[in-house]
């Protein structure tokens, strides 16, 4: 006989949103960081330039949130946003409208403290 898969009930989780100029990636995890579900604007069905729109980001977040809420019963989330893309604010609104309670919003965009060494001066 095949063993049944036991789905755990997760009430608290984390949402990682990476918003680039070309796409928006969403990953929903539990408290420990184990992935519960993920998606992107491309995975929802948008192609090319339309992947970078706020509407595409909203669609991606809604799809992932519905899937995870129905499978694991997620209620409260902490949101970590990374990147400069157009889907940042839209993704937050989509999380709120999906019925998730947001307890924390953090911007984790990497910022260089001094960057890489500059190229040597050009001599003509």
Question: What structural keywords apply?
Answer:
single chain; 124 residues; alpha/beta; Nucleotidyltransferase, domain 5; 5-stranded mixed beta sheet; 3 helices
Molecular structure report:
- This protein has three helices and five strands.
- The chain has 124 residues and is α/β, with parallel strands linked by helices.
- The chain has a single domain, classed as Ribosomal protein S11/S14 (Nucleotidyltransferase, domain 5), CATH 3.30.420.
- Helix 2 runs parallel beside helix 3.
- It starts with 11 loop residues before the first strand and ends in a 17-residue tail after the last strand.
- The model has no long low-confidence stretch (mean pLDDT 91).
How far apart the termini lie comes to 78 Å
Radius of gyration: 18 Å
3D shape? elongated
For the record, the CATH architecture stands as 2-Layer Sandwich
Proportion of beta-strand residues: 25-35%
**What letter string, H or E per element, gives the SSE order?**
EEEHHEHE
Superfamily (CATH H level) name: Ribosomal protein S11/S14
SS-derived structural category: alpha/beta
- Discrete helix count: 3
Poorly predicted spans:
none
Question: CATH class, please?
Answer: Alpha Beta
Family: Belongs to the universal ribosomal protein uS11 family.
Function: Located on the platform of the 30S subunit, it bridges several disparate RNA helices of the 16S rRNA. Forms part of the Shine-Dalgarno cleft in the 70S ribosome.
Keywords: Ribonucleoprotein, Ribosomal protein, RNA-binding, rRNA-binding
Protein name: Small ribosomal subunit protein uS11
């Amino acid at each position: 006989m095949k063993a049944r898969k036991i789905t755990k009930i997760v009430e608290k989780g984390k949402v990682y949103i990476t918003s680039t100029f070309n796409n928006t990636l969403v990953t929903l995890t539990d408290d420990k960081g184990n992935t519960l579900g993920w998606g992107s604007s491309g995975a929802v069905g948008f192609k090319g330039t339309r992947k970078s729109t706020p509407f595409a980001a909203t669609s991606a977040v809604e799809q992932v949130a519905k899937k995870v809420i129905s499978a694991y019963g997620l209620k409260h989330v902490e949101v970590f946003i990374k990147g400069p893309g157009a889907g940042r604010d839209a993704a937050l609104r989509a999380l709120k409208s999906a019925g998730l309670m947001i307890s924390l919003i953090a911007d984790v965009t990497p910022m260089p403290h001094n960057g890489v060494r500059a190229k040597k001066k050009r001599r003509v």
